[in-house]
Design goal:
299 residues; Rossmann fold; 2 domains; five-stranded parallel beta sheet; 12 helices; globular
Length: 299
């Protein structure tokens, strides 16, 4: 599996190097830049998959770095991580193309989860670029064949053809995405469902593992958000059964009782991501959407 390449950009050297060490422990390859200028140079030499970027730095600030990176390397996903931001800064960062906007102090697991979601988007963008490049090559080869066979008009017609306009799957995928939330903490899970509905994500609720399996048989969801510790059948057993029978369903583990060993086992069984409670709702929505896009892209 491709190791995610991450560039961490922050002038707080001790903080950013500690974060890099934690990334390496989770098998996420990371480099460090201590200024905006250094970051831009490193991006030119070897573009990362994901950049985690502070806003307030001496010299070129984070917003300027974001704008330049997204202009010259649009497939690089940029996560803003700042302790000095504001709603206006967040709005501007998203306008410039930031994947996510996180406030310091951010939990390492939250940062890693966001990086993995951003990487998923980066892979999809790269795949789309390859597809478009292949289509352009095919058109050029077809035109050349017509020209060589003495049909220049046909060659010109082929080259003048414009690709069919791209469909915009984002709105469709979000509005039709079916999410099943599985957790025995009823107040928590129903509140989550309400917030999902506010974001136009259709969600159902199951309060235990067996109920979840019964609901899946009746109506297969696109994404499951699954707690691990529940009475009766635990989440790991639900995950195992779901992935055996419905491997296309993306399963996100969200637990307050997990361990590194649990995370390793969940990922071995096919979990899309592993989140530790408490989870910021915006982060959860982002991961659910990424899981839904990955699931639909695999159909």
């Amino acid at each position: 599996m491709h190791k995610i390449k991450v560039l961490l950009v922050d002038d707080e050297e001790e903080y950013v190097r500690t974060m890099a060490e934690r990334m390496e422990l989770r098998d996420v390859g990371s480099r460090v830049a201590l200024s905006g200028e250094e970051a831009l140079k490193m991006v030119e030499e070897d573009p990362p998959d994901v950049m985690v970027l502070d806003l307030r730095m001496p010299g070129i600030n984070g917003m300027e770095v974001l704008e330049k990176v997204k202009t010259e390397h649009p497939n690089v996903q940029v996560v803003i991580l700042t302790g000095h931001g504001s709603e206006q800064h967040e709005k501007e960062a998203r306008r410039l193309g930031a994947f996510q906007y996180l406030q310091k102090p951010a939990d390492t697991n939250q940062i890693l989860s966001t990086i993995r979601s951003a990487w998923s988007k980066s892979v999809q963008a790269a795949a789309e670029f390859v597809k478009e490049s292949r289509e352009e090559i095919d058109r050029s080869m077809t035109a050349a064949a017509f020209a060589e066979s003495g049909a220049p008009e046909m060659a010109k017609e082929v080259m003048d053809q414009k690709p069919a306009p791209k469909e915009e799957p984002a709105e469709k995928s979000e509005s039709t995405l079916k999410v099943l939330l599985v957790d025995d903490e009823e107040d928590l899970v129903r509140t989550m469902a309400e917030r999902m509905e506010m974001r136009e994500l259709g969600s159902d609720v199951a309060l235990d593992g067996q109920q979840a399996l019964n609901m899946i048989e009746d109506d297969i969801p696109d994404v499951i958000v699954l707690d691990l510790r529940m009475p009766g059948m635990d989440g790991m057993e639900v995950l195992r059964r779901v992935k055996e029978t419905y491997p296309q369903i993306a399963v996100i583990i969200m637990t307050g009782h997990g361990s590194d060993q649990d995370e390793k086992e969940a990922r071995r069984l096919g979990a899309f991501d592993y989140l530790r409670k408490p989870v910021d709702m915006a982060q959860l929505i982002e991961v659910v959407r990424s899981a839904g896009q990955a699931r639909m892209g695999g159909e």
